[in-house]
């Protein structure tokens, strides 16, 4: 079972497998493959003339006390139901990691969707390295304002608020988040936030970087007419991602990932 980089003509088949496994429609996958061309960012295993398994990657950079390290976020790992249980995913991951190492990417990272996947990738040498805190916060009457900003402006502002070990994302990655419905905001009292949905009683805040979470959540909820927000922010309470050093393993403190692109 040898993998290879996907061919441009196979994009439709990749999108069909993606939708089958994750449910996203073509507007999302069109954007992903436009920003991250399959021939460079997606490896596949072909069986019986069909795409049996796929795995894509996005570039990321890890900043920590030991230095700055170029790496990859492995994303949209999928095996067609007809071909599961044959070890395709393990083979695909091993060859993708080798390809990344040849591109001078010194680590691979991913965000497992549940405990069973943490165990699955743990058996492949991945270790829990990324953490965050989450909370359901209710809006209060604290006044606050915010301003929607561009993805590139958010990237710069984000880095100014992150001092702990963390992953820095590229403009293409943030553009992809925008295509999935995310919007980016600067908070008047300092900080920034990524909001994925802005309707109904509750708000989903994928990332909040602020010295005053209550004030920030109140500003966001007031703007969207929401009563509460499901918020993710830097912290060490909950596992959020795993990492595998492809060479020169480093000693690590808990790191912040930010986005799972889910």
Folded structure, characterized:
- This protein has 262 residues and is an alpha+beta fold.
- The chain is 31% helix and 37% strand.
- The protein contains 8 helices and 12 strands.
- The chain has helices spanning 11-22, 26-35, 38-41, 88-102, 115-122, 151-161, 171-179, 213-224, and strands spanning 4-5, 42-47, 50-64, 67-79, 107-110, 127-138, 146-149, 166-169, 183-187, 192-197, 202-209, 228-245.
- Strands 1, 2, 3, 4, 5, 6, 7, 8, 9, 10, 11 and 12 form a 12-stranded mixed β-sheet that branches.
- α4 (88-102) links the parallel β4 (67-79) and β5 (107-110).
- α1 (11-22) crosses α2 and α2 packs antiparallel against α7.
- The longest helix has 15 residues, at 88-102.
- The two termini are 29 Å apart.
Helices and strands in order:
Blueprint: E1 4-5, H1 11-22, H2 26-35, H3 38-41, E2 42-47, E3 50-64, E4 67-79, H4 88-102, E5 107-110, H5 115-122, E6 127-138, E7 146-149, H6 151-161, E8 166-169, H7 171-179, E9 183-187, E10 192-197, E11 202-209, H8 213-224, E12 228-245
Parallel strand pairs: 4-5, 11-12
Antiparallel strand pairs: 1-2, 2-3, 3-4, 3-8, 5-12, 6-12, 7-9, 9-10, 10-11
Helix pairs in contact: 1-2, 2-7
Number of strands: 12
Helix content: 25-40%
Shape: globular
* Range of strand content: 35-45%
Uncertain residue segments: none
Structural class: alpha+beta
- Succession of helices and strands: EHHHEEEHEHEEHEHEEEHE
Number of helices: 8
In round numbers, the mean pLDDT is: 93
Q: Mind telling me the C-alpha Rg? A: 19 Å
How far is it from the N-terminal to the C-terminal residue, by CA?
29 Å
The largest β sheet comes out as: 12 strands, mixed
């Amino acid at each position: 079972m040898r993998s290879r980089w996907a061919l441009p003509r196979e994009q439709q088949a990749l999108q069909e497998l993606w939708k089958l496994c994750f449910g996203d429609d073509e507007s999302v996958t069109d954007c992903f493959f436009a920003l991250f061309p399959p021939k460079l960012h997606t490896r596949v295993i072909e069986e019986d003339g069909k795409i049996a398994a796929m795995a894509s990657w996005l570039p990321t950079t890890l900043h920590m006390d030991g230095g700055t390290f170029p790496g990859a976020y492995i994303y949209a790992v999928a095996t067609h139901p007809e071909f599961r249980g044959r070890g395709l995913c393990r083979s695909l991951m091993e060859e993708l990691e080798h390809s990344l190492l040849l591109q001078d990417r010194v680590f691979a990272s991913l965000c497992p969707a549940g405990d069973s996947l943490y165990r699955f990738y743990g058996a492949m040498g991945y270790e829990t390295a990324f953490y965050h805190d989450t909370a359901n916060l209710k809006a209060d009457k604290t006044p606050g304002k915010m301003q929607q900003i561009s993805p590139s402006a958010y990237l710069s502002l984000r880095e100014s608020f992150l001092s702990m070990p963390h992953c820095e994302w590229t403009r293409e990655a943030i553009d992809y988040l925008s295509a999935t419905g995310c919007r980016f905001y600067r908070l008047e009292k300092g900080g920034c936030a990524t909001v994925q949905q802005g309707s109904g009683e509750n708000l989903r805040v994928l990332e909040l970087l602020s010295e005053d979470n209550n004030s920030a959540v109140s500003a966001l909820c007031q703007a969207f007419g929401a009563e509460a927000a499901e918020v993710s922010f830097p912290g060490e309470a909950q596992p959020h991602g795993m990492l595998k050093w492809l060479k020169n393993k480093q000693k690590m403190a808990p790191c912040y990932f930010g986005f799972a692109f889910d």
